[in-house]
């Protein structure tokens, strides 16, 4: 019976979406030529269609959450059609499958981008977003690179807040879990040919998640494979845009790391083997500089790395504290090896929305085994930064300007 009900719901969704497409096509043919195009969608035009009792899913055990496995009962969709008043009115609807034309550009040329955000249930019971305006800025920058339409970030934030308020019971009642938010923009133009997509779909889905890494990995640190044969990004490329095409080609290398008993890939670039990112995280290094002081180092925004929201936040917190030197510059594997040999390398850690702040304990580099003493530091910077970040996100520090409370 469950299988039959799912089949009925699936085909019902397909029919509904096909009917929508027919209505949009008909509207395009009969559109008043004197009508004023609506370049951007607005929250004021948002419509809501709630899921019925048979469409609601049971909430997962918060203690058994894995990353990206469960999804909430509703989603947000906004269609874009060039020449048809551009953006259509946003709609919140029951979670459903997406029907695409077989020639849709996203399927052939990876015309797609996404964002990663989280909603946190604070210690005061309030639900917060963390600096969502930075995600919107990055998403629009990615859209420009992918030839997809831009939008007003503040309007999408309002729509996302409404979606979360509807599915608010999916936000875990835990400071060890959160609700992952995945805004996605895809080209759905049903024509073959590498060109700008005249039609697009922006949608948002929600997923309750626990820690990206196991608790033991967070305690002892993660291990990395650094193989200079593989490159994630290059000058003039799109490493600074959050495109799906940046991530798919990394899966093979990630699998190679796993087969070696390692957890992530340390991405290097160029003849000097510059450190760029750890898996999907920005990288930070703490070392004793030539003046005998602790220095926090991270690669600059030179087009090779993603301008992470957490990266931005950790740098801002560190500069506000003014307890150690903060520098943005390139760092090479040769320098890492030398610092480690001189016992001046203190910490290496990754930072990102999904992984938060994750310490590194080991690097496999061309047969060399580098043991990094990140988790052995008595006053580790990564621990202080992680605590401050979580204190803001979960409302332990109330009324912080980086927190957007969802009413």
From TrEMBL:
One of its GO terms (molecular function) is L-valine-2-oxoglutarate transaminase activity. InterPro entries: Aminotrans_IV (IPR001544), Aminotrans_IV_CS (IPR018300), Aminotransferase-like (IPR036038), B_amino_transII (IPR005786), BCAT-like_C (IPR043132), BCAT-like_N (IPR043131), BCAT_family (IPR033939). Its EC number is 2.6.1.42. The modification N6-(pyridoxal phosphate)lysine is found at residue 242. Pfam families: Aminotran_4. It comes from Atta cephalotes (Leafcutter ant). Belongs to the class-IV pyridoxal-phosphate-dependent aminotransferase family. PANTHER family: BRANCHED-CHAIN-AMINO-ACID AMINOTRANSFERASE, SUBGROUP IIII AMINOTRANSFERASE. It comes from the Eukaryota. It catalyses: L-leucine + 2-oxoglutarate = 4-methyl-2-oxopentanoate + L-glutamate; L-isoleucine + 2-oxoglutarate = (S)-3-methyl-2-oxopentanoate + L-glutamate; L-valine + 2-oxoglutarate = 3-methyl-2-oxobutanoate + L-glutamate. GO terms for biological process: L-leucine biosynthetic process; L-valine biosynthetic process. NCBIfam families: ilvE_II, PRK13357.1. This is Branched-chain-amino-acid aminotransferase. Its cofactor is pyridoxal 5'-phosphate. One of its GO terms (cellular component) is mitochondrion. Keywords: Amino-acid biosynthesis, Aminotransferase, Branched-chain amino acid biosynthesis, Pyridoxal phosphate, Transferase. Gene3D superfamilies: 3.30.470.10, D-amino Acid Aminotransferase, subunit A, domain 2 (3.20.10.10).
